[in-house]
Amino acid sequence: MAPEIEWDVDTSTHSQTIVKTPPLRSPSPRNRIVVLLVVVFGVTLGVIYRSIPEPPRPPSLTIRPTPTIAVSIDSVIDQEARALERGDPQVFMRLQDSADPQWRTQQINSFKKWGEPPDYSDLYTIVVSGTLGSDRMWVDISQARDGQFFRETRFYRLTNGQWVRTAPDHSLWGDERLLRTNHFDLIFHEGDNYQAQIMAQQLEKFYNRVCQDLNCTLGKPIDSLVIRVCRVLDCSDAAGFDPNPVPQFTLIISPTAQATTVSGNIDQHITVTMSSPRLSGLYFQSLYNSAPGNDEPIVRMAINKLFVPHFVAKVASGALDRQARQGELFVNYITEWEINRIIPIPAFADDIAMLSSIKNVKETDWLTLDELWAATSTNDLPESRINLLGTETWSVIRFIESAYGPEGVVQFLNAIGHRQSLQDVVENTFYYRYSEFEKLWRAWLKNHVTQ
Questions:
Q1: Which among 193, 289, 298, 439 would be 20 to 30 A from 278, CA to CA?
Q2: Phi and psi at residue 12, to the nearest 5°
Q3: Three-class SS of residue 65?
């Protein structure tokens, strides 16, 4: 290859020079192989790198709410039972429906300690249960209470994944029915048919005790118990019903069972409308075959809610329609006297305490027996006059009892409706002249007031 010729001109001297440039050498074969190997190796590394799959990207962080831990129905029943056993209102109320303030108020007001099971028995048993839709249940539970076993129907509602105790759903009970006995018309619901029969027998037993105490049949035998169940309020065509079902339950009225109404009718029936015995609760112990009057829950219910003694006293005094009739105050106070015999009240036995309200009343201002007999109502009277009427009327009853015993009080009551005056009642019952009877009563009253 020919050398290349270049002209180099020096502009400062204006001289010219010819320069020869040597030709470039060709790379050797060895160098070419090295370069080629480097290129191939680089390409291969690139291909290998590209063939490696990319690692998966880490998932983005998602904040999730903490899940609600569901509380099963069995757990709620167990917690509730144990809270009742040990008397723990805090745990008990946590299991009650927070969406129903009225229900919660009822529950806390009626809460009490139930106690441990008798004889090392299980604390509670789930007897039977059922559903009322997808989010409600009813459960019949038998649990130890006061040394016995108490059965009641409880209702539960599912809310936010948890079961809570809630107010009763009466749809379980069915249509309304009427049960008629000798002296009671008991209105109940179809689902309580069996329990209503037991309750009716208990009420009749108590009625008979009061009737025997006050001689309401005036010596005639008490009729055998008859029970009839009707679909409507007219029981006239109802078929006979077994009056002696196997005793199993004794009724107890709880503070939540407040739907009780009473009316006394001329046909000598007391109409009772009340909530389900399954809701108010039943003890697994029947006193059906026990001595009359020993069933304290029934007795208290009949006294406080049904006024059975007052109803019977009206019958025993000779008339049910005694309103605004002479001798009415004596009938009323004999009712109180009978109640005190059934469930003694210490204050009633303390004559001095009972009569203290007239201590400062002059003896000349005391009412006469005729004035007590004529008094039919205490309405629109000043308080001092009301106290005097009540205290003196009570003192007559206590005086008769002290002089003639309880039988004398009953004879006095039985004679009221058949006599035209108190003088007639006294002289035909105690065989005292009326003036002498009043004199003896005043002396007795004066003695107790001045003690």
A1: 289
A2: -75, -35
A3: coil
CA distance 373 to 298: 33
Which residue carries 């539970």 as its tokens? 141
The residues with which 408 forms a beta bridge, in sequence order, are none
The residue to which tokens 């059922």 are assigned: 130
Full pLDDT tens readout for the chain, 451 residues = 555 544 454 545 545 444 454 555 555 666 666 556 655 566 565 655 556 665 556 555 454 544 444 568 999 999 999 999 999 999 999 999 999 999 999 999 989 999 998 777 899 999 889 988 889 999 999 899 888 788 889 999 999 889 999 998 877 778 888 888 888 888 888 888 877 887 788 888 889 999 999 998 887 777 777 777 776 555 655 454 454 444 445 545 444 444 445 554 445 678 877 677 777 777 765 434 444 444 566 677 777 766 788 888 988 988 665 555 788 889 989 999 999 888 887 766 676 677 777 777 888 888 899 988 988 766 556 666 777 888 889 999 999 999 999 999 999 999 998 788 899 999 999 988 999 999 999 999 888 887 6
Alpha carbons 11 and 223: distance in angstroms, whole number = 159
Beta bridge partners of 184: 270
Work out whether the CA dihedral 74, 79, 84, 89 comes out positive or negative.
Answer: negative
Say how far apart CA 207 and CA 184 lie, in whole Å. Answer: 10
Strands 176-180 and 162-166: unpaired
**Cα gap 430→412, rounded to integer Å:** 8
d(C-alpha 223, C-alpha 399), whole Å: 33
Q: How far apart are CA 382 and CA 346, in angstroms?
A: 28
Provide the whole-model pTM: 0.67
Q: Which of 117, 119, 97 is closest to 108 using CA atoms?
A: 97
Question: CB atoms < 10 A from the CB of 331, how many?
Answer: 20
Report the alpha-carbon angle 231-232-235, nearest 5. 95
The whole-angstrom separation of Cα 371 and Cα 376 is 10
Q: Are 396 and 337 in contact (CB under 8 A)?
A: no
Tokens of 171: 């749809």
Helix, coil or strand: residue 71: strand
Vertex 151: Cα angle to 145 and 153 (nearest 5): 130
CA–CA gap between residue 408 and residue 445 (Å, rounded): 18
Which residue, among 372, 368, 366, has the nearest Cα to 326 in the 3D structure? Answer: 372
The helix (run of H) or strand (run of E) holding residue 45 is helix 29-51
